[in-house]
UniProtKB/TrEMBL annotation:
Keywords: Membrane, Transmembrane, Transmembrane helix
Segment forming the signal sequence: none
UniProt protein name: Epimerase
Residue ranges of the TM segments: 6-28, 49-71, 77-98
A Pfam family: DUF1304
InterPro entries reported for this sequence: DUF1304
Keyword Nucleotide-binding: no
Lineage: Bacteria, Bacillati, Actinomycetota, Actinomycetes, Micrococcales
Length: 128
């Protein structure tokens, strides 16, 4: 079950890398504007905020990926701690988005589903 959890965690990390690219690199592009529902003017006005927010997503992804590598290298306790910290933060951010803006609930659910699955699988692995 731990392997399943790490696969979900890796997928969550990859999703957050994608979100980083959208927010920090492509924020003003038509694709990012369509994804986030912003106008050209809104995207231009919020570019620096999105740039910073994208890096938060990247850092969470790196935390999870480093944790997975540490687990694979035999450092189970430290690695799983990093994975839980990263996926827990991803899930918490998704919950904040979900509860703060009803129009963003679909995005929040997408952002939070994989970290939630990783944490549930880790919980089950701990019980077995």
């Amino acid at each position: 079950m731990t392997v399943v959890a790490l696969v979900f965690a890796a997928l969550a990390a990859l999703l957050h890398v994608y979100i980083f690219v959208l927010e920090s690199v492509l924020w003003t592009s038509p694709r990012a504007r369509n994804t986030f529902g912003t106008s050209e003017q809104e995207a231009a006005a919020t570019r620096s905020l999105a740039f910073n927010q994208g890096f938060y997503n990247l850092f969470l992804a790196v935390l999870v990926l480093v944790g997975i590598v540490v687990v694979a290298s035999g450092g189970t306790a430290v690695g799983l701690t990093l994975v839980v910290a990263g996926t827990g933060s991803m899930l918490a951010a998704a919950l904040v988005l979900f509860t703060s803006d009803a129009t963003k609930r679909r995005a929040a659910s997408t952002q939070g589903a994989l970290p939630l699955l990783a944490l549930v699988a880790l919980g089950i692995a701990a019980l077995v």
